[in-house]
């Protein structure tokens, strides 16, 4: 990442769409219940360290963040947000479950419905001076924002309602960390 992108982020007005930290191996249970983390894949120890580090990096780079941080209701996304930004700064938004659902078997119409709502949420212009952070899930390859690595960030520039959005940059956790040196 170069200094011009860092300058843009410091100016604010962007959406940082972040995939949660590394989760434990396995699958979410068929009887998944958002109230019970044991029915889900959860953050591994590495995932917890990644989340803490992510928050430290953004603070050290002086990238302004607007609160609340939005997350899907999965324990792994909530914990990622809480470790990076503080428990009091997190708001669960049930819509982000829909991104997780895109990896399942959906009709074309259902997939389009989800992607249309997703696009409308990423089009909303933000005030300068802060950036919005959404911590949720990766997408299937070639859909939405595509594959995102653990703690990867897609920097999105909202163009305004009905005008779409632009993907400005894709960053791994290592890309962010390299700016600290």
TrEMBL record:
<dbReference type="Pfam" id="PF00300">
    <property type="entry name" value="His_Phos_1"/>
</dbReference>
<dbReference type="InterPro" id="IPR029033">
    <property type="entry name" value="His_PPase_superfam"/>
</dbReference>
<protein>
    <submittedName>
        <fullName>Histidine phosphatase family protein</fullName>
    </submittedName>
</protein>
<dbReference type="InterPro" id="IPR013078">
    <property type="entry name" value="His_Pase_superF_clade-1"/>
</dbReference>
């Amino acid at each position: 990442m170069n200094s011009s992108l860092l300058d843009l982020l410091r100016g604010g007005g962007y959406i940082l769409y972040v995939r949660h930290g590394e989760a434990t191996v396995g699958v979410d249970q068929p009887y998944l219940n958002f109230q019970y983390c044991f029915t889900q894949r959860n953050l591994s120890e590495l995932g917890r360290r990644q989340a803490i580090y992510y928050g430290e990096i953004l603070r050290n780079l002086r990238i302004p963040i607007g609160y609340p941080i939005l997350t899907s209701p999965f324990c792994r996304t909530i914990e990622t947000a809480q470790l990076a930004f503080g428990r009091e700064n997190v708001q669960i938004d049930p819509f982000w479950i829909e991104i997780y659902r895109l990896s399942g078997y959906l009709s074309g119409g259902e997939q389009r419905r989800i992607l249309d709502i997703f696009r409308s949420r990423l089009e909303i212009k933000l005030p300068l001076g802060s950036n919005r952070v959404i911590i949720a899930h990766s997408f299937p390859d070639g859909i939405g924002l595509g594959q995102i690595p653990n703690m990867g960030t897609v920097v999105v520039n909202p163009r305004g309602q009905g005008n779409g959005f632009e993907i400005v940059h894709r960053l791994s956790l290592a890309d962010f960390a390299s700016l600290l040196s």
